[in-house]
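B., you asked whether I could sanity-check this one before it goes into the benchmark set. Here's the sequence:
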Amino acid sequence: MKEITDLIVTQVRVFAPDTIPFRLIGAKSCTETLKSDFRVDEVQTNLFLPDRGSIVFERGEITKENNVVVINRIVIEPRRIILEVAGTSKEASRIYVLLLKSMESTTNIDLTKLKSPMILAETTQCIATLNFRFDSLLDDSFKKFMYDSVAKVASNKMARASVTPIATEFEITYDVEAQALIEHKISLSPKRFTIAPRANTPLEEKRYSTSSPFDSDTHLRLMQDLEKVITNRHAG
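And here's what the prediction gave me:
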């Protein structure tokens, strides 16, 4: 695996009711502080829907040791805090710590409980070059059927059809077993593990759009493992 670009990590932290001081964070003094601290372009607040309001910060950044980390969005809700960063999971977690410090300094409330969410769910996506052709993920008989039979039926007097694979996607579902989640009526929504040829890029370049419901280190390791499995299969 090489040439990794457009790495984006989304972290979703879920808390028990009344853990997030939602209306205090939504106060103008706090939102203005967060906007300044994280150099945010836009802030949107909706504080008037019980249990369904949101405070959204879009297009921000921080600088650490001369490195700029872009923040796509921060969303604060009565029970969730969502952070989307153009960077690694470690960078996202570091920004979350800074977010708590900034909120504490403005609200004068101890936010220690926000360091321990009931759930921390992560999603990682990136573009990468992997050492295999996309159709090598498919069974040979299935490829023959698609490339020959389907392409033949799709062709007509006006045009000859060709078939190109565009994505492989799997759904990951969860059966909640943790009693704390059951008691607080917290469910885990299905997630997708996806690999697809990079749009507007020849298949021969082996560039892929990838996403998974894991932290960035795990995601990149899984992509490396997939690359090894496919290349070793063809080598054998």
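One thing to flag: Helices lie at 22-25, 28-37, 89-107, 140-154, 179-183, 216-235. Otherwise nothing jumped out at me.
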